## 1
Amino acid sequence: MDGVADRWTEAELRGIVTNSKMMFEGTIMPAFYVDSGYERPLDDFADKSILTAQQVEDVVAYLMTLKEE
């Protein structure tokens, strides 16, 4: 993940974290934030968010610190 902030904008990273299937067709990475209509691979997470909106923002803020050295 080194340099992820140099490769993606903040908005793109937010999109990847919330629902990577919108960015990368065929990915197995699940959507981590749900407001409606996303499919869940596990019944335990059906119609539920894995992360809250604030947690998504926290992850994105952290990812934005990962620049190439």
## 2
Amino acid sequence: MMSQTYLTTDELSSRIKYDVRTIRERLKDSVLIEGVHYLRPFGGRKILFVWEAIERDMKTVSCQQPVGFSAIPMANGAILHG
């Protein structure tokens, strides 16, 4: 079993150079998907982000996406082009 790196919103903000507020209001639930990119341990309010999933999908979308083209990452790891 592969271990994963769990990050708080502040730690993720530091790694990807996005403001904490941007992560909470613009990325969470639109680009970052619960169960894939983040989880709520023990059903609580605290959110922990899965670094390996975020890093993988940032690279995947960045490498596959032509300039001016929108792509939506899907929960199963696929990408919806539209």
## 3
Amino acid sequence: MAAEVITTDDLREFRMELLEELQTFIKQIAQKPTKRWLKSPQVKELMGISAGTLANLRVNGTLRFSKLGGIILYDYDHIVEVIESNQVTHSNYR
């Protein structure tokens, strides 16, 4: 098994790559959708959750929704409110 030496230059390069990826990710999150009403697949992608988790958030009343025919729609602004109101700080995390 060969040992591999990691230099400070390697760490700097890794740091820069990681920062670039984080900046890209933050920009994607910060971009508000052009539509106010989102369908389930869009909400799942936006929040990074599964269909089951989205269903649980609907059933337990965490996320309000509107249903037109067989289409379930979610208000983007309400999703943001729910996320912001459930922020956890170190002092209240348990």
## 4
Amino acid sequence: MSSGQTRRLRVGRAYTKRTAPLYVPLIFWATGATGMVAGLLDLDRVRRLLFSSAAATGPILGAVHLLTLAGLTMVMMGALYQLVPVLFNGSPVRVIRSVSQWALYTAGLVFFIWGLNGQSHGLVWIGSGATGAGILYFLVNMGGLYQRRSTWNITAWFFTAALFYLALTVVMGGLLLLSGRTGIGSFAHELSIHLVIALGGWFGLLVAGASYRLWAMFGRKHREPRYWQATWVLANLSIVVLVVGNLSMIPSLVDAGWIVELGACGAYLADMVPAGLIDRRTMQDGALRLLIPSMGFLWVWQILGSVALWDHQPTLWRPAILAYGLGWVGMNFMGFSQKIVPFMVWLHRYAHVHGRGKMPRLKDIWPSKWTLVPFWAGTVGISLVIAGAGLSQPMLFQGGMALVVLAWLMLFVAGIRAVAGPHHLSDL
């Protein structure tokens, strides 16, 4: 195929037995990106409540769960349907099972968020039940992949722990709902424990495990991580100690758990830097460049969280959690998705004719110029959101949110263009 010619993309045609059809992860990612944008807009809408003592009201909870469940968790589910079969060298989940799980989970979220915003107890119960069932269905699907696995690796350790914490997150969410609506089963620091398990266990270990895998795939150095065992052990230990410390209301245990968590992040950083995090040649790649601010936001989380904990400034947990969720978790997905999507498109559309002539490369499917807006809008926007939340400045927060929404919208548009084609060849 000569330069300038194009090929029409047939979405979802599978050319490998080790990956799901292309549309399976794409429906999760498209829904997740939509959930992120909706959650950002909703959180901006209720920003004044966020800065007040009414931060646990239905509208705030609705916005938070749009971001965490409809946004980040949705995209992570799509990523695992794609990555886990490859990790285990096994067959993917059957399409009917993955798509029906997506439908159940999405329907549950619609009713759950609707109920939270409308203060409808009935819709909240129906939605939470369906959402929990959708997550359980997902865990069952993942369990089937584990049964059919033929290999094991570093990333599998992180994914296994993350899936365990996802199950615990659902249990904790159910207990919070029960205690909030009926007063039954309430216990000390239940919200803090829910956040520890969800943020540190489900999100934290999953993103760390995916980073180890994806840096090996797309980074230039392809080095084996040296400290992953320390990262894994310390991360799990910190979660256990923080949960026990909050349950027992022993401040010294909470302090110890936070110190261990700092150690886990240090071990993780010690692996990411040699993998190419600050390598000049690697950072010429616009998608991978997004991972520098994502790591910076992880340390903003550490600094703000340390001040909030040890200097007794609980309001700093708001910007700290935003730095963690939008900054580290969100920008990791934004960066790696710009590598995964073109790779998947190439695999499903062009791999079967590899060697039969000139074909698009990954940079032809997702040009580097498409990375500029998500990088700058995301980095500046999240910085403003953190500053606005920390200083209780709604206008600063609103400006930052507008930029973050722009970053996700441009990522969504670029993803559609990458999937839909046509893919023009660049000069070779």
